[in-house]
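Sharing a chain and its predicted structure for anyone who wants a worked example. Both blocks are below, sequence first, C-alpha cells second.
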Amino acid sequence: MAQRVAADWTWDDVSEMLAVVRGGSLDDRRSAACGFDWAAGDLNRLGWMMSQKDIDLGTAARVFLNGDPIRFQHMHKRDISDADRKRCNLLDAIHKRLVAGFYLPDPESGLGDERAAMMRWIAGQDTDRANGRRGRWNFTPALFEPLTLASVLPDSPGQLSASIDKDIFAVPERPKRVSLLRELFSSITG
C-alpha cells in the first residue's frame, strides 16, 4: 500500500504560499489571463483566475475582449452552439463582474489601452441602440472613466476647504432624555 506524503505547507511567508497556489506573482497572473488561449485553453481555469479579487479592471476588460464577444453579441442564448456555450457563460460572468464593480482599476497603471477599446465597444452598443437593437453585453461609459484625485479635487487647496460642507461633519444635538415614568406622569405633576 502506497503511503501518501502530506504537502509541505509550512511556509515562512503566506504571500509566497498564495503566489504558488494562485500561479505566480500578480503580474504573472494578469499576463496569463490576458494571454489566455480561448480556443484551446481550460475555460474553468480562466474562470477561476477571473474570480480572484486582485484582477484589475484593465485586465478584465482585455480578457473580455479577447474572448471575441462580438461574435455572440446579437445571438440569442438558444442559438449558441454547445461548443461555444462555456465561452459565453464565462463572458457572461466577466460581464456581470465588470458591471457590478468587482474589478477595480490598477492605481499605478490605470486602464491603459483597454479604456479606448471599451469605449469603442460602448460606441458600437450606442449604434445598436440607435438602430433599435440591443446586444447581450452592455456597459456604461462611467465604468471606464478614470478615477483620479485630480478628477475629484479642486485645483487649489483653498477651494477644497471651501467646497467641504461642514454640516456633514457636525454632531447633531441630541434631545434630552426623558424617562418613561416622567413622560406618563407629566400631565399630573405639571
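Comments welcome. Residues 82-100 form the longest helix (19 residues).
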